[in-house]
């Protein structure tokens, strides 16, 4: 400590306990001229820190210290391996690993994809925590100290920073290279876990035109909820049945539910298809999207006497005779019609996807 520093200090027996390190005792220039150890000791003296008990860490280079270092390094290394496994599963799917597709009845890779991600992230975080706990318990000194509370000042900020940096030095990372390397590996691998959500921008499954397309395509069969296909003679005239595309997860696709309606003879004579869609039906069957064009609610209430489909949410009504045109309520667009035909076995199949987006109007569509 410099002469000026000593001159600015006050003996404890003359002025009582020293608290706070007032700025008038030490100018910023004097504090700036001290090294970290001096600031640390000076801050402790002025702050009135009293160390009651200290349990020292293992002696440097001792067998106990080396054993603790190996345990900590192993925990951090395992955390890094779990995090790396997460990254391999996440980024490798569809590249050198099978591409996952969500389906309720899938018992293969797709069923394991999410659990493997959970195991990878969970294992990484658990072993990172284990490593930190072992490091603190086995390699850091444990001390009990008391200190009077006081207001802060420039002196306090300067000496506190020196105390914190001194604590970092006592942790001993520069000397414990094994722990430093394993922690660096774990931190890098966990960094991949943290940025994995950004991978969705690269591996975006909704490429193309997700709002304008569904699971329907040419040759895809119309099946019931239980997966059974539909023939023309399966429905009574004037009846409605909800059908789905016969693809994995087709009965769970939010935009693929379709109403297959068999018209009565008197309705057939009044049928007025929309322009360009006169051949979308097959015989006395027509198929319309089950998703209301107002707010996306499911429409399924069919009044065969009035030829109207009713949406129970906001009371929109669509006239089947006029190509499912809205005739009442807030909906402004007709229900999209699915072109249908029969396959070689006599079952209903789609001729193509819907030619327009199903569901409510969205921002880049022109209103029809």
UniProtKB/TrEMBL annotation:
Any one annotated GO CC term: plasma membrane
Domain Rieske: 283-349
One Pfam family linked to the record: QcrA_N
Positions of the UniProt region annotated as Disordered: 1-34
Keywords: 2Fe-2S, Cell membrane, Disulfide bond, Electron transport, Iron, Iron-sulfur, Membrane, Metal-binding, Oxidoreductase, Respiratory chain, Transmembrane, Transmembrane helix, Transport
Biased amino acid composition, Basic and acidic residues: 1-13
Job of this protein: Iron-sulfur subunit of the cytochrome bc1 complex, an essential component of the respiratory electron transport chain required for ATP synthesis. The bc1 complex catalyzes the oxidation of menaquinol and the reduction of cytochrome c in the respiratory chain. The bc1 complex operates through a Q-cycle mechanism that couples electron transfer to generation of the proton gradient that drives ATP synthesis.
Highest rank taxon of the organism: Bacteria
Transmembrane segments: 72-92, 112-136, 183-202
Localization (cell): Cell membrane
CDD domains given in the database record: Rieske
Family to which the UniProt record says this protein belongs: Belongs to the Rieske iron-sulfur protein family.
Signal peptide from the UniProt entry: none
InterPro entries according to UniProt: QcrA_N, Rieske_2Fe-2S, Rieske_2Fe-2S_sf, Rieske_Fe-S_prot
Organism: Klenkia taihuensis
Keyword flag Lipoprotein: no
Record's protein name: Cytochrome bc1 complex Rieske iron-sulfur subunit
Topology of the protein relative to the lipid bilayer: Multi-pass membrane protein
UniProt-recorded Gene Ontology molecular function terms: 2 iron, 2 sulfur cluster binding; metal ion binding; monooxygenase activity; oxidoreductase activity, acting on paired donors, with incorporation or reduction of molecular oxygen
PANTHER family: CYTOCHROME B-C1 COMPLEX SUBUNIT RIESKE, MITOCHONDRIAL
């Amino acid at each position: 400590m410099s002469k000026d520093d000593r001159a600015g200090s006050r003996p404890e027996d003359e002025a009582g306990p020293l608290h706070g390190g007032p700025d008038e005792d030490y100018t910023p220039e004097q504090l700036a001229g001290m090294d970290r150890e001096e600031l640390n000791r000076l801050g402790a003296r002025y702050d009135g820190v009293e160390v009651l008990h200290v349990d020292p860490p293992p002696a440097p280079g001792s067998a106990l210290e080396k054993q603790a270092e190996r345990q900590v390094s192993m925990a951090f290394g395992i955390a890094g391996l779990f995090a790396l496994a997460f990254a391999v599963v996440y980024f490798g799917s569809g590249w050198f690993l099978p591409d996952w597709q969500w389906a309720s009845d899938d018992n293969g890779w797709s069923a394991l994809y999410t659990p493997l991600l959970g195991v990878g992230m969970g294992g990484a975080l658990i072993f990172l925590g284990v490593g930190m706990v072992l490091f603190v318990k086995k390699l850091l000194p444990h001390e009990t100290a008391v200190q009077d509370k006081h207001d802060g000042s420039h002196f306090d900020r300067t000496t506190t920073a020196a105390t914190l940096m001194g604590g970092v030095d006592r942790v001993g990372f520069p000397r414990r290279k094994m722990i430093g390397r394993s922690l660096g590996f774990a931190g890098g691998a966990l960094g991949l876990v943290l940025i994995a959500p950004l991978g969705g921008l690269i591996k975006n499954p909704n490429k193309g035109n997700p709002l304008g397309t569904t699971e329907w395509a040419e040759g895809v069969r119309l099946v019931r909820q239980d997966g059974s296909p539909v023939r023309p003679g399966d429905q009574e005239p004037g009846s409605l049945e909800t059908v789905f595309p016969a693809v994995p997860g087709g009965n769970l696709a939010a935009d693929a539910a379709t109403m297959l309606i068999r018209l009565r003879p008197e309705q057939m004579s009044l049928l007025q298809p929309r322009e360009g869609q006169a051949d979308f039906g097959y015989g006395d069957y027509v198929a319309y999207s089950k998703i209301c064009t107002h707010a996306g609610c499911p429409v399924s209430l069919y009044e065969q006497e009035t030829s109207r489909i009713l949406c129970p949410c906001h009371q929109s009504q669509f006239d089947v005779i006029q190509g499912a045109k809205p005739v009442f309520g807030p909906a402004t667009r007709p229900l999209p019609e699915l072109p249908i035909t029969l396959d070689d076995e006599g079952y209903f199949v789609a001729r193509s996807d819907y030619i327009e987006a199903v569901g409510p109007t969205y921002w880049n569509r022109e209103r029809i």
